[in-house]
TrEMBL record:
The organism of origin for this protein: Methylomonas koyamae
Homology family: Belongs to the UPF0166 family.
Lineage summary: Bacteria, Pseudomonadati, Pseudomonadota, Gammaproteobacteria, Methylococcales
Any matching Pfam family: DUF190
Official protein name in the record: Uncharacterized protein
Entry superkingdom: Bacteria
Amino acid sequence: MAMETVTLARIYLREGEHLLARLLDTLRDERVRGVTVLRGIAGFGADREIRTAALADLALDLPLVVEFYDRPERVGAILAHLEIQGGLAHIVSWPVTLHTP
């Protein structure tokens, strides 16, 4: 099995911010190697307002996590591009080992 060091970036959003479609389009256009979107069942951000998927909620504004990975220099360039576009406040990244057959 081959191993390669790549960078994994994680972007935290909320459904109500309406940034997901634009972000996915950008990541697709940049041809990143892999993208996954996770929808949270509960969470809170800097405003400390808890958002949850309880059945009583009529308007959903759930947390979203967008993860993508690629070579470190590509992720750095993509994050710089996303920073110029604006609107993304919570991004973390770290090196990971990619295992391929």
